[in-house]
């Protein structure tokens, strides 16, 4: 094909041929990209604060002269002057006009260039300028829409490819790639901005980005901006080692410095080319420059590297899942997948799901992370809840605070798709099976969103008895996946551990299947270990022995309970024994944690018959002192002698009162109050676990931090204290719309609502929420608090109560509860 | 105007007294002290220390003060910048790691979240101090002295000026700090401020 195909800018060119061309060209050649735009525009008179994209309309000739200079320097691709063009900054009409004009300018520069060689126009897409939730205010789907709109316009006006660049957040990168893929058929290149620490601003490392972007089908990936070529070399090393798609590099001309009131970069064109050459030799396939580079830099780069033979792009055996921050590689050393986020057989977990108590569920995740797992399985399926909604909520909450990759575990494909979409990284997907319908539904999702999918070796005829038949199903799954373009490295087979109590050969066949899949298919394997011991006493003993045997057969991952000492022991011992634990570091770290459990156990067993009064007074003391672990232990002992309600009324509440009084008299400060409240909460958890009947609760309180505000420490303090005093608290979280607050008040028939705001700019949102609550639930009392509020302000916006601190909020809630009961 | 520059720092030395002061407890009990120590350990490695900045000329313009990135009638700022003919405008941040840690403990462990919050406040102030001290020394070599830093939202200098600060420094791209529609910065442990620069010998009032 020739560039002439695209001559009529404004009409989509023959896309198939264009796509073939640039991706085909990359297979055989080094692709030269352009250099900096912003600094050149400033030199031409772009005013500070002026949007450079407007120059496509205002000064098209100047923009064209830059593109032309890059083509004349030997570039194959120029990026349109559309870095910050999106509908968050521009009106729909202006956006369209800017993109139309930008593509057309670049196209005519390409056509005017008389050098030999291929030339393409890339639609440039930079960051949106907003931070995504949960840290910022931009919704993920809104980001997808904004990027998608730009991509669609780019294709409409004839760009040859989409170039997403300078992305410094993995979640935003995902939104951009998804938006581009869903709204255009063009090839998509994706480049991230890594700092000197080799990470994106929000923490992702190169492996996390490679896993996610390759999984989602980016056509080329790499790095640009931030620093010079040499400083990016370590990042490039990772890309060269792990990426199976062509690699991009567009570094800055070194670091900027100030010289007589001007910003200059510290690397010359020749030095720039000299530093890039070894990276081209090593296999970087698309090179250009970013900030501080000019056509001279690109010319030097082309001259220096033109004679270097392009290194073929090869398929790497990198099997991985990734999170916000990092990738977990499978197939090297076995990994643990925590199974505890799952309601099956867990009363407390089911209760948390029904009450939408996400903090409990996240707590289960944090505990497993601390216990040492590498991936968290997430299953929140219960017949009576909306699984799609709950799964996405839980995934959002978990990925906001936990660094581990998640395994999306659901039998509902709609819930699976919703969760994969909003997941920040490349997820593990649980699961597909050999059933035709399952593969038809799940494989398209794996292809679109990326993922490492767990494939169960069962089909329409059930689970085969023999290992050989399970292998056959695995082969069938593999060949079907191949049709969707899903590679073997993105499938992990689960040959299904069955209860050995029902069939004494069950474990042996599963183990044999692990060996067969590994040896015959060279594929990954995973099992859910706990099933094997079903129906037997001392299940952990059977589980851990089975686990060791499976590890010996080359198992790649296990879904298991990380709080089982036997399982963890089996895991660390295995790794130490087969040389997968260098200097026994992991084993020794484990042993340092383990003995503490033993001591705690022995203390518990030694104290059987002591006087319960002594425990009572010790419990009060532990709570007042704010000591969580002793409080929990004492509550465990006390509950053997004393009725739950008596412990609450005679020990916990008096202790809390004592602390509360101290706080009001200023002998105890906020940290002390909180530590006591947390200790009391841990005693409540013990009581909840032991009591069969629900204790009589006080009235329901809805609490939230209002829209636009993401500070929620204060709100959470109030929540904790209210719960301690027996209130049922519906916590709507932070940044909550007034509409949702009013809805929740009605739905839960709340007697009281507590609103928090920390910024003066969010007080209007609080006022609006109050108006809506008054409209829908006039009988509900409203209390407000937060750093910017005062009594006068609270009255002005129509609140019933201004709580100056958490204790005052509790006192008011107690009054409200009392007045209802009268 | 020159393009904003970026500096990255190692973790400044921790001042525990400051942390306890933010917690409202100058003489902490053992429980709290050990919680603070536990948190300090956890914070290690989770934060970045980045600053982006630009030096701008300023001048009086009738009733207004032209700061090179915005014009203001703030009397407080006029007093602070009296005799200055330029400023260093900067944005500093600990990165999103701070927000992640606070969110992690906020719901289940508010005491820890509160302590982390106090530590991060101490950390971001320490970062600003480190940067300001560096600028002070550099300015002294140029025969200038620096004024105490001053932020949008102080006294009569409105928070809305943050929009102009962001247009000037583009900290989104340079250090990953964003401004929300409610003028809240994310990552939340971020600061923007102005440092007045005054020539020591020839005092040129604006």
Segments of chain B where pLDDT lies below 50 for 5+ residues? none
Strand content of chain A: 5-15%
Largest interface comes to: A-B, 61 and 52 residues
The counted number of beta strands of chain A is 25
Q: Which spans of chain A of ≥5 residues are poorly predicted at pLDDT below 50? A: 1-20, 597-610
**Structure annotation, total helices of chain A:** 30
The overall number of domains of chain B is 1
Mean pLDDT over the residues of chain B: 92
User: What is the level-2 CATH architecture name of chain B?
Assistant: 3-Layer(aba) Sandwich
Characterize the biggest β-sheet of chain A.
Answer: 8 strands, parallel
Shape of chain A: globular
Regarding CATH, which class of chain B? Alpha Beta
The named CATH superfamily of the domain at 15-305 in chain A? Homocysteine-binding-like domain
Strand order of the largest sheet of chain A: 1-10-7-6-5-4-3-2
Measured by DSSP, the beta-strand proportion of chain B falls in: 15-25%
Please give the alpha-carbon distance between the first and last residues of chain B: 19 Å
Q: Kindly report the CATH topology of chain B.
A: NADH Oxidase
Largest sheet of chain B: 5 strands, antiparallel
Strand neighbour order, sheet with most strands of chain B: 1-2-6-10-7
**Outline type of chain B:** elongated
Rg over CA atoms of chain A: 30 Å
């Amino acid at each position: 094909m020739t560039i002439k195909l695209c001559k009529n800018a404004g009409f989509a060119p023959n896309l198939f041929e264009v796509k073939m061309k640039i991706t085909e060209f990359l297979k055989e050649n080094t692709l030269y990209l352009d250099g900096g735009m912003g600094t050149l525009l400033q030199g031409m008179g772009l005013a500070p604060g002026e949007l450079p994209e407007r120059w496509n309309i205002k000064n098209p000739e100047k923009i064209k002269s830059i593109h032309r200079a890059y083509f004349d320097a030997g570039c194959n691709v120029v990026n349109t002057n559309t870095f910050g063009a999106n509908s968050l900054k521009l009106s729909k009409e202006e956006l369209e006009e800017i993109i139309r004009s930008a593509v057309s300018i670049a196209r005519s520069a390409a056509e005017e260039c008389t050098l030999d060689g291929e030339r393409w126009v890339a639609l440039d897409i930079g960051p949106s300028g907003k931070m995504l939730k949960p840290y910022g205010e931009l919704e993920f789907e809104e980001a997808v829409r904004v990027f998608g709109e730009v991509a669609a316009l780019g294709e409409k006006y004839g760009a040859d490819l989409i170039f997403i660049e300078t992305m410094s957040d993995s979640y935003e990168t995902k939104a951009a790639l998804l938006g581009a893929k869903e709204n255009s058929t063009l090839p998509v290149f994706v480049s991230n901005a890594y700092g000197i620490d080799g990470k994106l601003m929000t923490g992702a490392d190169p492996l996390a980005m490679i896993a996610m972007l390759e999984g989602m089908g980016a056509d080329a990936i790499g790095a640009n901006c931030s620093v010079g070529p040499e400083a990016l070399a370590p990042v490039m090393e990772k890309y060269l080692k792990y990426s199976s798609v062509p690699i991009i590099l567009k570094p800055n001309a070194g670091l900027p410095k100030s010289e007589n009131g001007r910003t200059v970069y510290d690397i010359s064109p020749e030095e720039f080319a000299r530093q890039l050459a070894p990276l081209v030799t090593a296999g970087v396939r698309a090179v250009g420059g970013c900030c501080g580079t000019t056509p001279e830099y690109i010319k030097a780069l082309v001259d220096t590297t033109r004679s270097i033979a392009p290194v073929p792009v090869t398929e790497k055996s990198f099997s991985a899942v990734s999170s916000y921050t990092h990738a977990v590689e499978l197939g090297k050393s076995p990994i643990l997948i925590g199974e505890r986020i799952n309601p099956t057989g867990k009363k407390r977990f089911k209760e948390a799901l029904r009450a939408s108590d996400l903090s409990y569920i996240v707590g289960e995740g944090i505990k497993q992370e601390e216990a040492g797992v590498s991936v968290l399985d997430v299953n929140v399926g219960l017949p009576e809840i909306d699984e799609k909604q709950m799964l996405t909520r839980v995934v959002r909450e978990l990925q906001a605070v936990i660094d581990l990759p998640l395994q999306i575990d659901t039998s509902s494909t709609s819930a699976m798709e919703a969760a994969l979409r909003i997941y920040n990284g490349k997820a593990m997907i649980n699961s597909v099976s050999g059933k035709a319908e399952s593969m038809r539904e799940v494989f398209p999702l794996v292809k679109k969103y990326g993922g490492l999918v767990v494939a169960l070796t069962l089909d329409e005829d059930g689970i085969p008895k023999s290992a050989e038949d399970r292998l056959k199903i695995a082969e069938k799954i593999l060949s079907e996946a191949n049709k969707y373009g899903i590679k073997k490295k993105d499938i992990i087979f689960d040959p299904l551990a069955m209860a050995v109590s029902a069939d004494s050969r069950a474990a042996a066949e599963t183990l044999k299947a692990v060996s067969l899949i590994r040896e015959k298919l060279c594929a990954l394997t995973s099992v859910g270990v706990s099933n094997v011991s079903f129906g037997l006493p001392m299940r952990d003993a059977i589980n851990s022995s089975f686990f060791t045997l499976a590890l010996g057969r080359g198992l790649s991952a296990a879904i298991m309970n990380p709080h089982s000492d036997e399982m963890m022991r089996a895991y660390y011992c295995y790794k130490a024994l087969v040389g997968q634990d260098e200097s026994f570091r992991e084993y020794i770290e484990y042993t340092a944690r383990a003995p503490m459990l033993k001591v705690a156990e022995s203390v518990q067993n030694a104290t059987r018959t002591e006087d319960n009064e002594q425990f009572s007074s010790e419990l009060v003391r532990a709570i007042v002192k704010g000591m969580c672990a002793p409080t929990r232990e004492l509550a465990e002992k006390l509950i053997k002698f004393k009725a739950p309600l008596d412990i609450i009324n005679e020990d916990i509440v008096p202790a809390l009162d004592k602390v509360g009084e101290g706080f009001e008299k200023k002998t105890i400060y906020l940290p002390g109050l909180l530590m006591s409240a947390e200790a009391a909460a841990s005693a409540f958890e013990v009581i909840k676990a032991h009591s069969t009947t629900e204790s009589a609760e006080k009235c329901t309180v809805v609490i939230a931090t209002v829209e636009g505000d993401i500070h929620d420490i204060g709100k959470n303090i109030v929540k904790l204290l209210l719960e301690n005093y027996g209130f049922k608290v519906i916590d709507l979280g932070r940044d909550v719309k007034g509409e949702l607050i009013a809805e929740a008040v009605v739905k839960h028939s709340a007697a009281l609502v507590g609103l928090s705001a920390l910024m003066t700019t969010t007080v209007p949102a609080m006022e609006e929420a109050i108006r809506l609550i008054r409209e829908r639930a006039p009988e509900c009392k409203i209390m407000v608090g937060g750093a910017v509020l005062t009594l006068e302000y609270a009255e002005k916006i129509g609140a019933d109560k201004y709580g100056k601190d958490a204790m005052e909020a509790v006192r008011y809630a107690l009054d409200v509860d009392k007045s209802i009961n009268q | 105007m020159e393009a904003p520059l970026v500096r990255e720092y190692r973790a400044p030395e921790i001042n525990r007294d400051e942390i306890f002061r933010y917690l409202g407890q100058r003489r902490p009990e053992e429980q709290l002290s050990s919680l603070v120590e536990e948190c300090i350990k956890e914070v290690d490695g989770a934060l970045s220390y980045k600053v982006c900045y630009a030096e701008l000329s300023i001048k009086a313009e009738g009733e207004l003060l032209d700061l090179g990135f915005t014009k203001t009638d703030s009397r407080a700022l006029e007093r602070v910048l009296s005799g200055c003919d330029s400023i260093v405008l900067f944005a500093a941040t600990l990165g999103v790691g701070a927000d992640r840690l606070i969110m992690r403990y906020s719901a289940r462990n508010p005491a820890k979240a509160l302590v982390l919050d106090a530590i991060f406040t101490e950390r971001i102030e320490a970062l600003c101090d480190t940067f300001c001290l560096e600028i002070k020394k550099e300015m002294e070599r140029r025969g200038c002295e620096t004024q105490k830093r001053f932020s949008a939202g102080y006294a009569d200098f409105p928070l809305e000026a943050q929009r102009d600060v962001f247009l000037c420094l583009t900290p989104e791209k340079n250090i990953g700090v964003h401004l929300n529609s409610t003028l809240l910065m994310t990552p939340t442990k971020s600061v923007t401020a102005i440092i007045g620069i005054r020539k020591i010998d020839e005092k040129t009032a604006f």
